[in-house]
Amino acid sequence: MEQPLVEFSDIYKIYTMGDTEIRALDGVSFSVHKGEFLAIIGQSGSGKSTCMNIIGCLDVPTSGTYLLNGTDVSTLSDNQLAEIRNEMLGFIFQQYNLLPKLNVLDNVKLPLMYRGLKDSEQTARAMEALDRVGLRDKCRHKPSQLSGGQQQRVSIARALAGSPSVILADEPTGALDSKTSREVMDFLAELNQNGNTIILITHDNSIAATAKRVIRVHDGKIIYDGPADGDDIIRSTVLSQKEKEAAI
Ligand SMILES: Nc1ncnc2c1ncn2[C@@H]1O[C@H](COP(=O)(O)OP(=O)(O)O)[C@@H](O)[C@H]1O
Ligand SMILES: [Mg+2]
Description:
Layout: E1 6-17, E2 20-32, E3 37-41, H1 48-55, E4 63-68, E5 71-72, H2 78-88, E6 89-93, H3 104-113, H4 119-132, H5 148-161, E7 166-170, H6 178-193, E8 197-202, H7 205-208, E9 213-218, E10 221-227, H8 232-247
Parallel strand pairs: 3-8, 3-9, 6-7, 7-8
Antiparallel strand pairs: 1-2, 1-4, 4-5, 9-10
Helix pairs in contact: 3-4, 3-5, 4-5, 5-6
């Protein structure tokens, strides 16, 4: 079988506060392969962000092994880590994290600037990514001149511009209304159909239903790992939505 892009083996993240111990991740193991669309779901405080931060090399586990595309990230220097993160991972955040003083094009170019590409190549790749999210004509606008949904599409373009192996999205629809959320999720699903690997973090069952695979975490432990429609809570959420739609 092909080498996983992400491989967690018995990962623990333990915070000690005085004499209490918080197990944010309590022995978590899973692998993600190329082409997957995975949602990590759980209630607030279940360990989702901790998991995402470790996958994104923004945090390190207390114990356990994390292999990113076969490389044990704990063996890397800070520079090597920054490089592998820039090349392998594209980030999408709830609050978009766009720089307000830069226009849309420069925001999308940002991750490419660290790669030593020629400016003309950075621009070409950024424009191509903006094309994919349908915002080429907004490239000279400032983020504040765009709607929330458009700003999130800019942040998706920024994640795509570097052709990352994995797109990490932490509550990407958390700041959006339900219609715009749907559009962003449909777009992520389309990216996945075109071969992109996506790991989505959410507390929202109807959002997680878009993914193909779901890992449900509770108190830092995995309590379900399988197809999205095999998770009882997601299945009943989707069913009750269909009933509501049928009643209208
Ligand atoms: N820096 C920290 N110090 C102490 N406890 C933390 C820290 N970060 C997270 N936690 C705790 O770890 C648990 C998991 O947090 P988190 O991963 O943010 O959950 P989620 O994203 O699912 O809401 C929570 O109990 C949280 O309070
Ligand atoms: Mg969180």
